[in-house]
């Protein structure tokens, strides 16, 4: 019975973890692993100075070729089609990299929450909450911050009063 209960608790915990189609867990399927590697290489390259230089050179070459092609519709179609195709494909590659980075960031934050004894660990896995739940939790934290600010101002006011009273040579209890 102990093994069965242990399997259920593991399955329950894993239900909150992204499945193998998630970029952070791409190691389980060869196609996902290949796409993950490809996307990582392409996004690193696309953000490099060399890639920017290549894109700039392509645009300059296109502009220079304008008079040769008499600024025809075909000449315009080349740049429009090229940029559309590159943009379309890059959206998926960049999104994959963003998904992976997001999962890694959430795992790091979860580790910090779990390691800090005074932190509430109720927010671990919050990224899977609904939009409504996130708004409700954000509102609760805004209220908490407001109360903390008010309490801080009150404590600051008391400290200033105590300092002023001590400077006058009176005890704080004596009042005015």
Automatic annotation (TrEMBL):
<keyword id="KW-0812">Transmembrane</keyword>
<dbReference type="Pfam" id="PF04120">
    <property type="entry name" value="Iron_permease"/>
</dbReference>
<dbReference type="InterPro" id="IPR007251">
    <property type="entry name" value="Iron_permease_Fet4"/>
</dbReference>
<keyword id="KW-1133">Transmembrane helix</keyword>
<feature type="region of interest" description="Disordered">
    <location>
        <begin position="1"/>
        <end position="22"/>
    </location>
</feature>
<feature type="transmembrane region" description="Helical">
    <location>
        <begin position="50"/>
        <end position="69"/>
    </location>
</feature>
<feature type="transmembrane region" description="Helical">
    <location>
        <begin position="75"/>
        <end position="94"/>
    </location>
</feature>
<protein>
    <submittedName>
        <fullName>Low affinity Fe/Cu permease</fullName>
    </submittedName>
</protein>
<keyword id="KW-0472">Membrane</keyword>
<dbReference type="GO" id="GO:0055085">
    <property type="term" value="P:transmembrane transport"/>
</dbReference>
<feature type="region of interest" description="Disordered">
    <location>
        <begin position="150"/>
        <end position="176"/>
    </location>
</feature>
């Amino acid at each position: 019975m102990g093994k069965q209960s242990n399997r259920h608790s593991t399955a329950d915990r894993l239900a909150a973890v992204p499945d193998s189609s998630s970029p952070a867990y791409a190691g389980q399927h060869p196609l996902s692993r290949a796409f993950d590697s490809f996307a990582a290489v392409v996004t690193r390259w696309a953000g490099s100075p060399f890639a920017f230089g290549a894109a700039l050179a392509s645009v300059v070459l296109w502009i220079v070729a304008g008079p040769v092609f008499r600024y025809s519709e075909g000449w315009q179609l080349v740049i429009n089609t090229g940029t559309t195709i590159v943009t379309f494909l890059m959206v998926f590659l960049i999104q994959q990299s963003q998904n992976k980075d997001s999962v890694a960031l959430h795992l790091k934050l979860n580790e910090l929450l779990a390691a800090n004894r005074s932190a509430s660990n109720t927010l671990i896995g919050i990224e899977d909450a609904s939009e409504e739940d996130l708004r409700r939790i954000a509102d609760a934290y805004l209220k908490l911050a407001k109360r903390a600010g008010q309490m801080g101002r009150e404590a600051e006011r008391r400290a200033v009063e105590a300092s002023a009273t001590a400077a006058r040579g009176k005890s704080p209890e004596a009042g005015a």
